[in-house]
Amino acid sequence: MISLDNMKKLLSVLLAFTALSFYSCKKNDESAKTINQTQKQLEILLQDPILSPEQKYAIVNQMANNLLQTGDFQETILFLNDWVENNPDDKYNAYWMLMTAYSYMSLNAEPVAEYYFDRILRQYSDLLVKGKSIHFICLQNLIQISKTPKNRIRYFNELINRFPNDINKTELYLRLATEYEKDSQWNLALKTSELFLNQPDATTIQIPGEPDAYKDARHLIDFNNSSKDWTFESLAELEEAVKKAIRNYDWRRLDKYKSKVNFFSMSWKQDETDANSQTEFSMHDYMRGNRIRFAEDLDESSNENEAYLRTWGWSTYVSVWYLYFRKVNFPLDPDINGNWEWAGIYFGNKL
């Protein structure tokens, strides 16, 4: 049996030698031979029964890193899994599983990596490594690679509840609401959208991939709380009703047909969320004394979700108005979802 003092000295020399060899050597036959010899010596040290948990950690960590630096991810995975299986009481097993997950990530095996990240959360107590929570690291990776809304919902909730000071709650509320929508949990989507809107930076936050985050969440909540009685079952019905009202100069009908949630009136260059694009006005102010006309057909840029009707004669300043019709996206109410609404007006000819 190696004495404790001699073991410490040998371990120190081996670790220093290994670090130096990886720093100075290229991946050639000679360095591979050196690594193999070092691994065998470390394995011998690891058998000593008087090793403390910290000393075992240092040796196992070095052996795993030796394999990683050679690019042998499969051998790293086998080594770490064998260690965890044979040493179930090792307090650093969460860390070895984390290294395993990263090895699978390096092999582009994300579904398997997801299994290991999730396994750490379910089976191992949290552990700080260099001041960082392993559970937090796992959750960060899981929300990046997981493809299942139910799982992502769990990961987002866990991040928000367990690590509120280490995350951007505003962004995570928005992303959690999106996952609830994907999973058809509409009541929770509404509740979480309200939490997002109540955050102090909700109107200014820039969220990658969500350029209209605040507008979309605001519209969802306001639409849910509205009567929704201005919608039509089809685009054809909406188009015909609006044309008839214009033909009869029936401004009261037109005012009734306008969406009561975020109806906008703006130039093509403006943004729908601009404060002056949401100004309330009555069609009466622009129909009186004017000769209003409309195109026989919808604009050619119209599609299955959006439509534009060119009209003119509204004003001597800006004669042309495009009436913007939009399909309603509101799965929470099947009777309304898929209907059409008159959502806004674009002033001037299309750019």
Could you characterize the architecture of this molecule?
- The chain has 351 residues and is α+β, with helices and mostly antiparallel strands.
- The chain contains 14 helices and seven strands.
- It has helices at 4-24, 29-46, 53-69, 73-86, 93-106, 110-123, 134-145, 149-162, 169-182, 186-197, 213-224, 235-247, 251-257, 284-287, and strands spanning 128-129, 132-133, 264-267, 293-294, 306-312, 320-327, 340-347.
- The protein has a five-stranded mixed sheet with strand order 3-7-6-5-4, with helices on one face.
- Strand 5 and strand 6 form a beta hairpin.
- Helix 10 crosses helix 11 (213-224).
- It is elongated, with a radius of gyration of 32 Å.
- Mean pLDDT is 89; it is low at 1-11 and 13-27.
Which key features would you list for this structure?
single chain; 351 residues; alpha+beta; five-stranded mixed beta sheet; two-stranded antiparallel ribbon; elongated
What would you say about this model in short?
This protein is an alpha+beta fold and 351 residues long. It is 53% helix and 9% strand.
Portion in beta strands: 5-15%
Distance between the termini: 84 Å
Secondary-structure class: alpha+beta
Strand order of the largest sheet: 3-7-6-5-4
* Mean pLDDT metric: 89
Number of strands: 7
Percent helix: 40-55%
Task: Name the assembly state.
Answer: single chain
Please provide the ordered H/E string of secondary-structure elements: HHHHHHEEHHHHHHHEHEEEE
Shape, principal axes of CA atoms: elongated
Helix count from the secondary structure assignment = 14
Radius of gyration: 32 Å
Low-pLDDT runs: 1-11, 13-27
Can you summarize the main beta sheet? Answer: 5 strands, mixed
